[in-house]
Write a structure and sequence with these properties.
2 domains, 6 helices, 3-stranded antiparallel β-sheet, 6 strands, Double Stranded RNA Binding Domain, alpha+beta
C-alpha cells in the first residue's frame, strides 16, 4: 500500500508526461506481466516487475528473477501521456471524466471482492488525472481487502 501512496504522491507532483512514472505504474499494477502471462511467459507472473533497470528513464519495465537477475524487459504504455493508455488502467470499471477550462476531473468506481472502492482526482492533465484516480481506487480496494 505504501508504494501506491508514494506513486500517487509522485503523480500529483508531475506537470506532464513522464516515462519514469509510466514504468512505475506498470510495475505497481503489474500491467506488463498480465500481457506476458497470455503470451506464454507464465513464469513472469510469479516475478515482481522492477523499474530499477537502466532504461527506466525511457519507460522500460522488467521482471526480476528471485536471485536478482533481470529477465524480460518491455516498454511501458505511455500512461501519463495517452488517455487511451491511462483508461486501460481502469479496465471494465465505471468512471466519469471531464476536462473543462483546463481542469481535468476523474472519478473511478471499482467493485471489489470486499465492497466498492472509489478514486478521484483533479489536475491539469486528463491522463494524469485518470492515472491518479485509478491508483486511488486500487489503494482503497487494497485497504478494503486488508480489513
Amino acid at each position: 500500500m505504501q508504494k501506491l501512496e508514494e506513486l500517487i504522491a509522485a503523480l500529483e507532483k508531475a506537470t506532464g508526461p513522464d516515462r519514469w512514472l509510466d514504468a512505475k505504474i506498470d510495475a505497481a499494477l503489474r500491467v506488463g506481466t498480465v500481457k506476458m502471462r497470455s503470451g506464454g511467459f507464465e513464469w513472469a507472473w510469479a516475478n515482481f516487475p522492477t523499474w530499477g533497470h537502466h532504461k527506466q528513464a525511457r519507460g522500460m519495465c522488467g521482471v526480476q528473477h528471485t536471485n536478482g537477475d533481470l529477465g524480460l524487459i518491455w516498454g511501458s504504455l505511455p500512461f501519463t501521456d495517452s488517455i487511451d493508455a491511462a483508461v486501460s488502467l481502469i479496465g471494465g470499471d465505471e468512471f466519469e471524466m471531464t476536462n473543462l477550462y483546463g481542469v481535468a476531473r476523474v472519478t473511478v468506481y471499482n467493485q471489489g471482492d470486499f465492497g466498492p472502492s472509489y478514486g478521484s482526482s483533479e489536475c491539469g492533465s486528463l491522463p494524469l488525472a485518470i492515472c491518479i484516480a485509478a491508483l486511488r481506487s486500487k489503494l482503497t480496494q487494497e485497504k478494503n481487502n486488508a480489513e
